[in-house]
């Protein structure tokens, strides 16, 4: 009898350990350096305020079923490149704003020359599928092409706010959305 109790206790311990696996963990990210670790080990991610280094992307290839909540302001260092500044990929993704925003700091790029001037990064690229949703996302000051939906399917966007009013006097033909191969 003691042998069976010990085996049952071991099975229960293994089951509890599996339930506490990092893939079920929640992660809060408050610096760019914490993004990769959160993406690889968590299925519930909260993005606080931080700055993405110049020439780098906030690239998140998420595990199926991941929820990302944006609570802070995410800004981007200046670099003339094609971007995108943000790229989100995965299946069954829930990506939602909760008081946070993405600020592309477009005023650093807007030279009044459009594609003939400075190289401006595209802002937010979506490559999701499987019933993914993006809700209540706030984009400010897109350097170039605010939203690019590439090779996405079964993805819904609702409640987005795109504010490029700071560029009213200097931007040139700022395109907001592109849906390629979707």
TrEMBL record:
<keyword id="KW-0378">Hydrolase</keyword>
<dbReference type="InterPro" id="IPR012334">
    <property type="entry name" value="Pectin_lyas_fold"/>
</dbReference>
<feature type="signal peptide">
    <location>
        <begin position="1"/>
        <end position="20"/>
    </location>
</feature>
<dbReference type="InterPro" id="IPR000743">
    <property type="entry name" value="Glyco_hydro_28"/>
</dbReference>
<dbReference type="InterPro" id="IPR011050">
    <property type="entry name" value="Pectin_lyase_fold/virulence"/>
</dbReference>
<dbReference type="GO" id="GO:0045490">
    <property type="term" value="P:pectin catabolic process"/>
</dbReference>
<keyword id="KW-0677">Repeat</keyword>
<dbReference type="InterPro" id="IPR050434">
    <property type="entry name" value="Glycosyl_hydrlase_28"/>
</dbReference>
<dbReference type="GO" id="GO:0071555">
    <property type="term" value="P:cell wall organization"/>
</dbReference>
<protein>
    <submittedName>
        <fullName>Uncharacterized protein</fullName>
    </submittedName>
</protein>
<keyword id="KW-0326">Glycosidase</keyword>
<keyword id="KW-0961">Cell wall biogenesis/degradation</keyword>
<keyword id="KW-0732">Signal</keyword>
<comment type="similarity">
    <text>Belongs to the glycosyl hydrolase 28 family.</text>
</comment>
<dbReference type="Pfam" id="PF00295">
    <property type="entry name" value="Glyco_hydro_28"/>
</dbReference>
<dbReference type="GO" id="GO:0005576">
    <property type="term" value="C:extracellular region"/>
</dbReference>
<dbReference type="GO" id="GO:0004650">
    <property type="term" value="F:polygalacturonase activity"/>
</dbReference>
């Amino acid at each position: 009898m003691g042998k069976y109790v010990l085996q049952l206790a071991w099975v229960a311990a293994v089951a509890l350990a599996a339930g506490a696996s990092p893939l079920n963990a929640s992660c809060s990210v408050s610096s760019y350096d914490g993004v990769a670790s959160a993406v690889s080990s968590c299925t519930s991610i909260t993005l606080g305020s931080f700055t993405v280094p110049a020439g780098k992307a906030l690239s998140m290839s998420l595990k199926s079923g991941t929820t990302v909540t944006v609570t802070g302001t995410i800004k981007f260092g200046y670099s003339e490149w094609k971007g995108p500044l943000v790229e989100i990929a995965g299946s069954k993704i829930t990506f939602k704003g909760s008081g946070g925003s993405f600020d592309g700091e477009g005023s650093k790029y807007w030279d009044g020359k459009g594609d003939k001037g400075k190289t401006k990064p595209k802002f937010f690229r979506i490559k999701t599928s499987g019933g993914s949703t993006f809700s209540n996302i706030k984009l400010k000051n897109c350097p170039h092409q605010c939203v690019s939906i590439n090779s996405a399917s079964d993805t819904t966007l609702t409640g987005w706010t795109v504010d490029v009013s700071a560029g009213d006097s200097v931007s040139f033909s700022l395109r907001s959305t592109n849906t390629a191969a979707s």
